[in-house]
Amino acid sequence: MQNNLQTTPETPDTAWKTRTYALGVVAGAVMGLLSAYMFTRAAEENEDGKPDAIPTGTLIGILLSVLGLIRQIAESGKPKKK
Predict the structure, then answer these.
(1) What is the pLDDT of residue 38?
(2) Which of 14, 59, 73, 79 is 20 to 30 A distant from 49 in Cα terms?
(3) Cα gap 27→33, rounded to integer Å
(4) Residue 46: helix, strand or coil by DSSP?
(5) Three-state DSSP class for 66?
(6) What's the CA gap between 59 and 53, in Å, rounded?
(7) b/e map of 2-31 (b: 16 or more CB within 10 Å)?
(8) CA 34, 70, 22: angle at the middle one, nearest 5?
């Protein structure tokens, strides 16, 4: 009997992708935890120990800063132009 299995070309090593995703998850979790800690610590300094409402302008500024950071990270993965 003949073996009808065809060989497929080797797939490129994708271990670097897994490491990159894992690093991104860990870094995001650490940044989120640190941000939450600092936010609650600042809120505890209020008289009643609760946070004030965050103004919409501040939230928009934070969102734009995060989007800028994500864009910079994405751009760093592109090859350099010669």
Answers:
(1) 94
(2) 59
(3) 10
(4) coil
(5) helix
(6) 11
(7) eeeeeeeeeeeeeeeeeeeeeeeeeeeeee
(8) 65
Residue written as token pair 């600092």: 38
Contact 65, 58 (CB under 8 A): no
Are 14 and 20 within 8 A, CB to CB?
Answer: no
**Widest CA span of the chain, in angstroms?**
84
> How high is the pLDDT of residue 48?
83
Structure tokens at 63: 């969102």
Region of 2 on the Ramachandran plot (φ > 0 left; ψ -120 to 50 alpha; else beta):
beta
In this prediction, the residues of the chain whose per-residue pLDDT falls under 70 are 1-12
Per-residue tokens: 2: 């003949």
Q: How far apart are CA 55 and CA 73, in angstroms?
A: 27
Give the pLDDT confidence score for residue 50 in this predicted structure.
82
